[in-house]
Amino acid sequence: MAFRTARNLAYFSNYIRNYSTNGPLVNVTVNEKSGFATATLQRPSVNSLNLELLTEISHTLQQLEKNKCRGLILTSASNKVFSAGLDLFELHKPNADKIKQMWSTLQEVWIKLYGSSYPTVAVVNGHAPAGGCMLALSCEYRVMLNNFIIGLNEAQIGFSAPMWLIDGMRNTIGSRQAEFALTAGTLFKTEEALKIGLVDEVAQSKEEAIEKAEKFLNKFAKIPPHARSMTKAALRGANIQALVRNKDEEVRSYVDFVTDSQFQDSLGEFIELNLKQKLSK
Ligand SMILES: CC/C=C\C/C=C\CCC/C=C/CC(=O)SCCNC(=O)CCNC(=O)[C@H](O)C(C)(C)COP(=O)(O)OP(=O)(O)OC[C@H]1O[C@@H](n2cnc3c(N)ncnc32)[C@H](O)[C@@H]1OP(=O)(O)O
User: Fold this and answer.
1) Membrane-crossing residues (predicted)?
2) What is the chain's alpha carbon radius of gyration, rounded to the nearest angstrom?
3) Which of 73, 100, 113, 137 meets the CB 3.0–4.6 Å disulfide criterion with 168?
4) Could you count the other beta carbons within 10 Å of the beta carbon of residue 261?
């Protein structure tokens, strides 16, 4: 079992410290008492998900799994944005190879986080549109700070969320609410998200959110880890397997879709209308 001895714990903590020095975009720390890891996304300024950040998240999750992490808190170094979703500037007039890698890494992140054997909580301490909501949804529990937005606004940008993400939304808020939310691309304020069950708890400060997250993780202290993870796999496995089977086909259709001029035009309009930074003409 993880951290059975102080030596194991010390080894893991050192390992993580060493690892975190190699990962400038994701800072990982381990609470030596509880054994819970905190992974803090720190890509300036809004943790938009480009290939480098996605790759680092994916490696972090792999290391946590390998080291039998006891629980993960995923959060942001920004006090305004948890993650702004995919890096829209990298989706604009993209290099097809890079987009291919980006999509495939995004799928890996979902598979590793949604399917992790250890318990996971997102401390959503800022806005979480689209891919930001995806990261939060792939955790088991969400604690969100007030006065931010969260949701899957893909329909507003001009595309549909993929099936695995729709499944994640349905499994969290139910089919009826998911249909309303996804077809309109709704971004919910914190209190609205709480009402529909998109987040589990609201906190007034990051410290309070971390306390609530730790309380959730501590619920599993007396549950045998293998029984917990087998149950999680039974609940989530079919959705993950569906993605694994369709992974390459989805990457191909995503690359075709994103490189199409119609999508590029609507993305360009979305950026010009919604983002402060503009496209260079
Ligand atoms: C075939 C399959 C097809 C599709 C598959 C679909 C889904 C797959 C699963 C997950 C993927 C989802 C898709 C996405 O994630 S698309 C991204 C959608 N993101 C958004 O719509 C967010 C846009 N941003 C905002 O609404 C606001 O910026 C935000 C609320 C996050 C923060 O607001 P705030 O006022 O605090 O900051 P700003 O001044 O607006 O922004 C600060 C700087 O950050 C830049 N920025 C913001 N968002 C992005 C982004 N997504 N990508 C790149 N850059 C971003 C912004 O331009 C500002 O830059 P500077 O002016 O500081 O240079």
Assistant:
1) none
2) 18
3) 137
4) 7
Are the C-beta atoms of residues 128 and 136 closer than 8 Å to each other?
yes
The Cα–Cα gap between 281 and 278 comes to 9
Checking phi first, is residue 186 left (phi over 0); if not, alpha (psi -120 to 50) or beta? beta
User: Residue 226 has which token pair?
Assistant: 């293998």
User: Running DSSP on this structure, what letter comes out for residue 141?
Assistant: E
Query: Which residue carries 């010390």 as its tokens?
Result: 10
Out of 49, 86, 135, 187, pick the active-site residue: 86
Rounded to the nearest angstrom, the gap between the alpha carbon of residue 92 and the centroid of all alpha carbons in its chain is 22
Determine if ligand 1 sits within 6 Å of the CB of residue 48: yes
ipTM: 0.94
Token pair listed for 141 = 């529990």
Ligand 1 proximity of 89 Cβ (cutoff 6 Å)? yes
* pLDDT tens for each residue of 75-126: 999 999 999 999 999 999 999 999 999 999 999 999 999 999 999 999 999 9
Q: Is 174 helix (H, G, I), strand (E, B) or coil?
A: coil
